[in-house]
Amino acid sequence: MEQKANHVTMRHYPAESKPVERMLRLGAPALNNNEIVAILLNSGTRNKTALQLSTELLSQRTLHELTETTAEELTGIQGIGEVKAARIMAATELAKRINAEKVEERPCISNPQDVANLVMEEMRSYDREYFKAILLNTKNRVIGIETISIGNLNSSLAHPREIFKKAIRRSAASVILIHNHPSGDPEPSKEDIFLTKELLKVSEILKIKLFDHVIIGEMRYYSMKENNIF
């Protein structure tokens, strides 16, 4: 009898704290990741509410990792049975299919001018160096633009590990490096050229193509590939 009395469920939560009620009242964007996954789980276990179970699940797997997690891996997590695993897998598969439908809307990069058209307006106004990576799929469509580092007024620092970690996580087929020169002059420095050649070596090892390295100036750009730097 004592155990049953201590069995806390979401029914005991105030209405303003229940994920389903919050979603219906405030809309899905108001919910955090734990609350959304808790709705998918629908119920908890004898000792944990759905929200507590969701929090524990997301402490072991990121949202991106959940999209690649198998049923066997999910059911290996305490409190996740086959039905809960199926709900999570259905949700992540639906997200993948929605994402796939949007692929054709993503810009396609075929030359440095396409890169400049995509980022020039924003990056030419920066007052310090930003180093970014445009991630492409196998059809050269943009799947993401990641900020790698932000430098001081005169320089930026980009480590190969940070650049390619993001590319690997997003399953990018190729990468375009971009950074700006606040001076407005896009001509590369010796350091820019050296870094590009070092990153080329890393890209060859990882088999993630280095498509180009484009430097953004004031309404001008410089393409390492176009100028035969590599």
Order of helices and strands: HHHHHHHHEEHEHEE
Low-confidence stretches: 1-5
Instruction: Tell me what portion of residues adopts beta-strand conformation.
Output: 5-15%
- Structure class: alpha+beta
State the CATH topology of the largest domain: Cytidine Deaminase, domain 2
What is the helical fraction, as a range of percent? Answer: 40-55%
Q: What is the typical, i.e. mean, pLDDT?
A: 86
CATH architecture classification of the largest domain: 3-Layer(aba) Sandwich
Structure commentary:
The protein folds into 2 domains: 2-101, no CATH class; 105-223, Cytidine Deaminase, domain 2 (3-Layer(aba) Sandwich), CATH 3.40.140. Helix content is 44%, strand content 15%. It is built from 10 helices and 5 strands, in the order ααααααααββαβαββ. The protein has helices spanning 2-5, 19-26, 33-41, 50-60, 63-67, 71-75, 82-101, 112-123, 160-169, 190-206; strands at residues 130-136, 142-150, 174-180, 209-216, 221-223. Helix 3 (33-41) crosses helix 4. The protein has a 5-stranded mixed sheet, sandwiched between helices. It is an alpha+beta fold. The N and C termini lie far apart (74 Å).
Produce the secondary structure layout.
Layout: H1 2-5, H2 19-26, H3 33-41, H4 50-60, H5 63-67, H6 71-75, H7 82-101, H8 112-123, E1 130-136, E2 142-150, H9 160-169, E3 174-180, H10 190-206, E4 209-216, E5 221-223
Parallel strand pairs: 3-4
Antiparallel strand pairs: 1-2, 1-3, 4-5
Helix pairs in contact: 3-4
